[in-house]
Amino acid sequence: MRLLSWNVNGLRAIYKKGFAEAVAAMAPDILALQETKLQQDQRTGEMLALSGYDSYWDYSVDKKGYSGVAVYARHQPREVRCGFGIDRFDREGRVLQLDYGPFILFNVYFPNGQRDADRLGYKLDFYRDFFAYTDRLREQGRSLVITGDFNTAHNEIDLKNPQANKDRSGFLRIERDVLDDIVTRGYVDTFRALYPDTVKYSWWSYRFNARRNNAGWRIDYFFVSRDLIDRGAVREAFILNEIDGSDHCPVGLELDI
Questions:
Q1: pTM
Q2: Domain spanning 2-255: which superfamily?
Q3: Alpha-carbon distance 2 to 256, whole Å?
Q4: Which residues are catalytic?
């Protein structure tokens, strides 16, 4: 099973840049999108009729043109849920969970903390409460795949200029500590597990020719619960730097389920 995750930074905009053709070339079984920036009535017929896929959506309740996640899937899940049961987070349209039986897929657009101290606090609260929720599922014996834009580079290898960004949200020690903690609790960063020394990024600023100069950050991940690693279900993890259309590129995972 080939899974891809992509922060598209506006689904309407990226459709004009060859999105459907890129998806056909990448051929995912499941495609998780973040930052669709859509409301339900803004979805076009083209979006709803992407060949070979059913689609599932979550939207921001209070703010149009903001946040939003979607999943295109060839395989029908047993159950689909929006959010994770806490209204202050669920209102922003940041989480879809699809139950496939052998695993639950979470597509998550984690908050950005750069605006101000309140927003950083919101981001940290989101991390805490979301992973408390997923911990409860793991205690029930469920296997988890958690993908999306985490809005945090974990270690110095994961961004071009770590020292210059150490006081910037996205690489603050307090944010990186959260990723340290979830790894300790049994969540595995699949790309880093398979490629511990590989320098590769998934997001570049639109400024300063950052993508051309590869001055990027790796902030898009596929984390899995450790049991999937232990039983050999993770076959491959990858980052598709060559795919344009957004300030992020797709990241991927191959599962043997």
A1: 0.98
A2: Endonuclease/exonuclease/phosphatase (3.60.10.10)
A3: 9
A4: 109, 149, 248
